[in-house]
Amino acid sequence: IFQFLKQLGIHPDWQFVDVYGMEPELLSMVPRPVCAVLLLFPITEKYETFRTEEEERIKAKGQDVKSSVYFMKQTINNACGTIGLIHAIANNRDKMNFETNSSLKKFLEDSLSMTPEERAKYLETYEAIRVTHESSAHEGQTEAPSIDEKVDLHFIALVNVGGHLYELDGRKPFPINHGETSDDSFLEDAIEVCKKFMERDPEELRFNAIALSAA
């Protein structure tokens, strides 16, 4: 992932670090502040059933999503790692230092006014990010993009926008608001959301969380 971020023109003052476990003493090892968490998890029948029910429930009840949340749909099959990264960076773009000619910075600036569907279409045509994604996946230097090739595993991003914790998943029709959070409690709050994913599939072991932390 480090290589991937560097190729996209992001200064290394933020880094992705593994979250080795969900217990407080293991979370205390993660450098703070944390501005996003990526969760890698298996798409199982249980999860798909839950996803359908969740979508119907939110459509019926409604939810509050701030207009400043950057969300994009996923139309490229094996790009959930890339889209997870874009979601993590895009919703923290004010904290990031981009190189002047950063391909990701240009992509975000161009796509800010677009709908989630238009952003997905734009990514399909945006060579710089797609090529970076493919080359880093082939080199195998970075865990995230190459994991995408196993289609039964999927990435989502958890971010704090305006004091609310949002789950961003390009396979879903909209962001999911998981309630209030703060800069101080964000990692713990995000891990609580990750635990719910694990509790829904207790026989599954293929869960992995990565935090975007200050270097």
Automatic annotation (TrEMBL):
Localization (cell): Cytoplasm
Keywords from the UniProt entry: Cytoplasm, Hydrolase, Phosphoprotein, Protease, Thiol protease, Ubl conjugation pathway
Gene3D superfamilies membership: Peptidase C12, ubiquitin carboxyl-terminal hydrolase
Quaternary context: Preferentially binds diubiquitin; the interaction does not hydrolyze diubiquitin but, in vitro, inhibits the hydrolyzing activity on other substrates.
CDD domains for the chain: Peptidase_C12_UCH_L1_L3
Residue(s) at site: Important for enzyme activity: D169
Species the sequence originates in: Neopipo cinnamomea
Record site: Transition state stabilizer: Q74
Residue numbers annotated as active site: C80 (nucleophile), H154 (proton donor)
Predominant subcellular localization, coarse grouping: cytoplasm
GO-annotated molecular function: cysteine-type deubiquitinase activity
Family the UniProt entry places it in: Belongs to the peptidase C12 family.
Keyword GTP-binding in annotation: no
GO cellular component: cytoplasm
Class of the enzyme per the UniProt entry, highest EC level: hydrolase
Catalytic reaction(s) noted: Thiol-dependent hydrolysis of ester, thioester, amide, peptide and isopeptide bonds formed by the C-terminal Gly of ubiquitin (a 76-residue protein attached to proteins as an intracellular targeting signal)
GO BP annotation list: protein deubiquitination; ubiquitin-dependent protein catabolic process
InterPro entries: Papain-like_cys_pep_sf, Peptidase_C12_UCH, Peptidase_C12_UCH_sf, UCH_AS
Protein name: Ubiquitin carboxyl-terminal hydrolase
EC number(s) reported in the record: 3.4.19.12
Ranges for domain UCH catalytic: 1-214
